[in-house]
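ugh ok fine here u go
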Amino acid sequence: MSTETDADAREQLIDLAEEFYEQFEEGDVPKMRIPTRTKSNIEYDEDKNVWVYGDRESTRTAKTISGAEKLLKATYTIDFLARQLDQDRSSTLRELYYLSESWDLDEAQFNTQDESNNLIEDLEIVSEVKREDFHMRPEESGAKVMGPLLLREQTNRGDREIHCQDDVGQGGYQIPNNPDTIEFLDNDAEFVLCVETGGMRDRLVENGFDDEYDALVVHLGGQPARATRRLTKRLHDELGLPVTVFTDGDPWSYRIFGSVSYGSIKSAHLSEYLATPEAQFIGIQPEDIVEYDLPTDPLADSDVNALESELEDPRFQTDYWEEQIELQLDIGKKSEQQSLASYGLDFVTETYLPERLDEMGVL
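structure:
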């Protein structure tokens, strides 16, 4: 079912292609400017409380062979996306990579999937249209929601109403690629708990944590997909639910929190759409490792380097994070969520999370 959003997305893409032709007609070498997607080019937007791209730009220009090939690939991709929207079809990022092998010019075909993924991001930025509105899907993220929420989801087989406890099994409700197709109908939740690992998510559901505390348990599945972050933001903004993020106690997990709360470098152009600045960290803290004497692993060199990098990362330059990271560097240890099981399978739901949530003012 084609929508007004689809028509707008197609028009933006066609306008972008027309810019290339206009540059040709005016005798200019075609080019496309995009923000430089590096940590040194993100800055804090105090009005929106998220991290966004700064003023540094990279230029794709046909002055070089490699630049000309990138613009050629962009033109072919725009044509493919416009036709996809016309036909009300969708495709995955992986399919786009393979589809390019059928294009009539070898130079227009992608050499790697990273190349096609990066081009879609370029087109998002310069057209100001989200890839979801191009009908581009990532590979399945597997992220699920369990909790007291009734919603209506628009699908190509019609609308369906789903209660995220009563109408689903132990696996929960699977988040669709575009969470903006969801309408919230009724909600009895008190807060959102985003959980990094599948094992911990299953422990919380098996122990009935979602039911006892009226929690919406969102499985992040590691580094969270855009759909997961978008749904989390909507749950906060539209339903007024506090958002907490429960992860392992290591530098890579802190970055998972950072992507939920402040946005990621790769998607800084969508931070206002994806990030939830009010999210609070409830993961394993270095001070928990000390206080609870949790089972640990030693920090690897890569962990130490990552922690030291985070001390310079603007997303983590707060008193809380500086204190925790410096403590972790001092003790030289990291710990997983499931290390709490050293106190029994119920400790996490009966003691650890309730105490942390109470301290944070969520319960």
